Amino acid sequence: MIHRPDSVPVVVVGGYLGSGKTTLINELLTQTSRKIAVIVNDFGSVNIDASLIASVNSDTIELTNGCVCCALGGTLADTMLEISDREILPDLVVIEASGVSDPASVSANAYLGGFHLSATVVLVDAVNASRTATNDLVGQTFSRQINSAHVLVLTKRDAATAAEIAACMTIVQQASAPAVFREDFSLESLSETAATPNASLPGEHEGNFSSEILHLPPLSSVEQLENHLNGLPKHAVRAKGIVRIGEQSVLVQRVGTHTVLSATSLAPTGIVVIYAD
Amino acid sequence: MSTSPTGSNGVIYTARLIRTANPSNRTATAIAIRDGRVLAVGTLEDCQAWGITEVNTQFADKVLTAGFVEAHAHISAGMFAEIPYLGFFPRKLPDGSMTTAIKSTDELVAYLRTIDATLPDGEPLLAAGFDPIYFTTERLTCHHLDEVSTTRPILVLHASAHLATVNSFVLKKYDITKDHPAPGLGRDDIGEPNGELREAGMALAKEEYRAITARGFGPHTMLNFAATMRNAGITTSSDLASTISINDDAIASATAITSEESFPLRVVAATSIAGGAAGKKNVLERVQHARTLSNDKLMYPIIKLVLDGSIQGFTATVDWPGYITGEGHPLFLAPPEQVLDMLRPFHMANIGIHCHCNGNIAASVFIDAIEQLLIEHPWLDHRHTITHAQLMTHAQMRKAKNLGMCANFFVNHMWYWGDQHHDITVGPDRANGLNPCATADRIGLPYSFHSDAPVTPPGHLHTMWAAVNRIAPSGRTIGESERISIDRAFHAATIDAAYQMHIDHLVGSLEVGKFADITVLDEDPYAVDASAIRDINVWGTMVGGVIHKNP
Ligand SMILES: [Zn+2]
Question: Is B425:B311 a contact under the CB 8 Å cutoff?
Fold first, then answer.
């Protein structure tokens, strides 16, 4: 992907309510001396630790308005533009997406001038994942979140039963993104490595794998897509994502050299390619 | 133009007919006003019994009605006074002029050219309200806008506010080329950006996006809002999802503006608790503080929460079997599990809650939360309101009725998107049951209906017309058995709207002691053909006895 070398990396942290987003961001703030702007777009009280923020010369911005159908302004995009106007830019922007938002649409804000997207990290609470996935009210929201991730981080393993972890693994294995356990994951290293897309993701649990996000230009035919995929190196063991062919969004799932395509109404995400190193 | 009544003792106005929305005295021919309030209503003789000598006959050939009350509109309804409006259906601007209806891409280009000709060099051309959902012509691209100008930035915001189209000048200005990675870019067959900027992608055109979002939120917005409402005959309107109470400066400025005698509207500022402001900004404290600063034309009796998206955007939470064409993207804007906790402090403080629920899943979440809150804290007169309420099931309506709730239907949808709902979103059966006013009457659920201005143009002559006729632009009637009488519609547009905002003791009917808020019409909505209700001319209004004539 193309971005200017001086642009500010953005990490989007999504995941359903109670999946541990705030805890993760607080831990990130203790681990770093970098200047981080944290944008919080969640409900209830702000739990980002103010003392941590002060100590690392970072700041937290709360969004006061969600996506109200008829209200312009006050949005995440406005906040990003304000940050891009700062005289001293932050080293990293972390966006805590609301528990019901689609991290894919939140991460679209990371493509605004002066920024680039490092990664969309979606947290999955191992205890509740299968219950949330099958919940009538929010099941669809949950699966959209999972499908918009570059990295899935499984939280609350200690509190989960073996059956809950197994159910959770079944859910995340159907997703395109690699999954790691919380204790194997550092957001700090992710934000550094992802700026160079070929670097390996930290803590990949299936062994030594790395991943890359392939952003294809809009395609006019299936043949064009196949040409791109066939051009991948041999150690690309898996690829998954959504591309646009003509007017149609297409879900691409590839294992080895076998590719399955299916129509979808979801927006294109790019293709995540997993390499066996 | 505003004029105050003279005579400290009071003034009597005579009229061809007065419709009071007060069932004890349904009609009258004279009304006496003293200190901005209704002193008497009946015959001239009844009014003269109070010893008033001044009789004003300027409305002798007019029909006066209880002032219309709009329970779901937004202050940004006045924005089209500041941004050229490109809608398919024309609107009346604050100065009384009508906008040009834009019905094809060619008409759009021609209209923008006329604006281009009036702008100084280099100034951006910004416009809003473009509504291609009704077009059969090809999609708008940068190439059409390049026919308007290649030397100044052009940004056209679509009616949905989720999409904008820019010209090639803007694409070049921000270096938006084929290899730009942003997901919100529309592209042509060979992958070149075609000028469409979607959702967050709109902000790629940084300066133009900022300029257009800043308009409609300036110091004139409140005045433009009030003038727009006055032109539609509305004397009280909510600003639903208001931010006025959030800071002291906004309260002070809104208080000063509304206190002017010439300000022609009572504003019900329903503070938004969307987007997580609830716990963080201490919205409850802010609302309670603002309430201590209320005046007769600025009140804070209710708050607003948005729970889901829209039906035409396929983001409303529609229960099984969902949308008929394509996959929906049902969207909760607040986590359903947190709704109870978010609402509790407001319910405990006896503040009315208006909750945006387009889909029936959202409606269930809200109704269940209210049931639980009533068990915890039995406020019997809460009147909590499901606003939009478009897809409520009859079971939900019965339960809502039993809980003492109200509905506020978006009946203008029957006209503006009726055909789309019939053909594309939910299908004929559920379209027939959208905004079910007649069923609400059968069940006994109190309701009003609304324009959601600026989403549709404000005005209760139009909402009443829509509720009485339920006709879509194709000419088909959608849900014949949900049509209601003009009498029911008139009460929904006046006293029942006031009721759900907890201000029915002040406005909504011409009743002795209440504010003298009157809508002045050329014709009687009960007497004209049902198909012509929306065409009645609004002469102006009276708010607290002060006359506001439309331009
Ligand atoms: Zn609204």
Answer: yes
